[in-house]
Amino acid sequence: MNRRHFLSTAALAAASTSFMADAQRPETQAPVKGPLPPSIAALPNRKSEATPITVAERGERIARAQELMAKQGYAGVLLAGGTSMVYFTGIRSGNSERMFAFIIPVKGAAFLVCPSFEEDRMRERLDTIPGGQNVRIYTWHEDESPFALVGKGLADAGLRTGKIGIEEKTPYIYASEIAKANPGLQVVDGTPITAGCRRIKTKHELDLLTLANQVTLSVYEAAWKAGHPGMNTADFSALMGAAYVKSGFPGFSSCETGIYSALPHGSIKPQVIKENDIVLIDDGCTVEGYAADISRTFVYGTPSDKMKRVFDTVHKAQAAARDAAKAGNECQSVDKAARDIITAAGFGPDYKTFTHRVGHGIGMDGHEWPYLVRGNKTILETGMCFSDEPGIYLPNEFGVRLEDCMHITPQGGVLFTPQSPSLTEPFAV
C-alpha cells in the first residue's frame, strides 16, 4: 500500500469482509445487461434506516477495553490498520511500511503514532475518536523509528513495563520492532482485549446487523424471482449486485450450481443454471460496516428425492444448532448439535459430508471471534452473534447449505432472518 492509500476511506474498504477472501471470486461483479428485472427495480433504498456508530459509543468501547486490560494485566493494546482500528476510532487505515497505530493504555488517554508528514491529515480525522482534539500524537520523520514511540507514549502515561497487546491483524514486523525497541514491555496477543470487546454486541450493533441481514435476504429473493434456468451464475451474481445498489448498501454474493454446489466456497469455472439442479448462493451486504452472511439453496424445477432428503436434514441441523446456542453453553456444543443430526441421518461421521464448522462470529468482520467449532470451550454470552450454517456436500453430485445469522440469548439463538422452508419456495414464510 502506498502513501496515497494511507488512511483510505474508499468504498471498497468499507464493503470488504473477511469471508470473501475464502473463495476464488472476482473483485467486481459484472453489471446487469439491459433494464433491471421488476423484482429488483422494486427494491426500496433503505440507507436512511442505518444510524452510524457515535463517538460516545466508541468511548464506551475504549473504557471496556481498559477494564479488560486491568483485569488481565495489560499495560496497553496497539491497533494498526484494520477492523479493530475502525471499531475503536472510526478511522479506516491501511498498513504500509510506515507504521500508523492507535494505542489504548490501561489508564489515561489513548494516543497515536503517526508519520510526521501525515499529522495534518490525521488531525482532520480526530473528530471520530473519543477525546478528539486532546488525543496525543507522537510523530516521526522518515529517518527515525516509530517503534520506540509506543513505549514513550505508555511511559508518559506512567506505564513503563508490562504487557502490550498487539491486535491480530497487525503486521509481524511492527510487533517484532516494538519488542526490540521497548525491552521493558512484553509483546503479547491483543485478541483477548479486542475480541473481548467486539464479541458482545450492543443493541445498536444488533440493529445494524438486523438491517444488513434483512436487506441481504430481500436481495436474494429479488434475484431468485428474476433468475431462471439457462442463466449463467455470473449473470445471477450480477442480479444480486444490482439489487444491493438499489437497496443502498455495498454487498457481494456468489452463485454456484450443479456439481459445483458441492464445493463450500464454489468454483471459478463457468457454470450455467439448469432446470432441476441445485443453486447455492452465499455472502451478503454491510450496513455501517456490519456484515450479513446468508446462504440459500434452491431448485428451479423439481428437486430429486435425494435433494429433498439432504435439504430436510440440513434444515433440522440448522434448527438444532440455533436451539443449542444458549448463553452459558460452550461454543463447541452448537457445532455438535448440528453434526449429530447430520450423522444420525447417515451423512457422517465427523467431517465426511459436513466439511466445515457450523458457524463463525460475525459483526464488523464477516468472520470474527469466537467460532462455533469442536474444541472451542468458550462460553456463549448474551449478545454474541454467529452464523448458523450447516451443510452437506456430496462430491460430483450437489451440496446444500442453509445459513442465517443469529444472536445469543439465554433461551437459544435468535435468527435475524427466518429459516428457508424448502428447495422450491426458499423465501416463503
Roughly what is the average pLDDT, rounded to an integer? 92
Series of secondary-structure elements, N-terminal to C-terminal:
HHHEHEEHEHEHEHHHEEEEHHEEEEEEE
* Percentage of residues in DSSP E strands: 15-25%
The portion of residues assigned to helices is 25-40%
Secondary structural class: alpha+beta
Strand order of the largest sheet: 4-3-2-1-5-6
CATH H-level superfamily title of the largest domain: Creatinase/methionine aminopeptidase superfamily
The parts where pLDDT drops under 50 for at least 5 residues are 1-28
Count of DSSP helices? Answer: 12
> Could you give the distance between the termini?
46 Å
Overall CATH class of the largest domain: Alpha Beta
Number of strands: 17
Which word captures the global form?
A: globular
- Based on CA atoms alone, the radius of gyration comes out at 23 Å
Keywords: Signal
Signal peptide: 1-23
Domain Creatinase N-terminal: 61-200
Domain Peptidase M24: 209-409
What are the key terms here?
2 domains, 12 helices, globular, Creatine Amidinohydrolase, alpha+beta, 429 residues, Creatine Amidinohydrolase, Chain A, domain 1, Creatinase_N, single chain, signal
Your description of this structure?
The protein has 429 residues and is an alpha+beta fold. The protein folds into 2 domains: 55-198, Creatine Amidinohydrolase, Chain A, domain 1 (3-Layer(aba) Sandwich), CATH 3.40.350.10; 203-415, Alpha-Beta Complex (Creatine Amidinohydrolase), CATH 3.90.230.10. It is 33% helix and 20% strand. The chain contains 12 helices and 17 strands. It has helices at residues 11-15, 38-41, 55-72, 83-89, 119-123, 147-156, 172-181, 191-198, 203-226, 233-247, 305-324, 331-347; strands at residues 74-79, 101-105, 111-115, 136-140, 162-166, 185-189, 251-257, 278-287, 290-291, 296-299, 359-361, 368-372, 385-388, 391-394, 398-401, 404-409, 412-415. The strands form 5 sheets. Strands 4-3-2-1-5-6 form a 6-stranded mixed beta sheet, with helices on both faces. Strands 7, 8, 9 and 10 form a 4-stranded antiparallel beta sheet that branches. Helix 9 crosses helix 10 (233-247). The protein is globular, with a radius of gyration of 23 Å. The model is unreliable at 1-28 (pLDDT under 50).
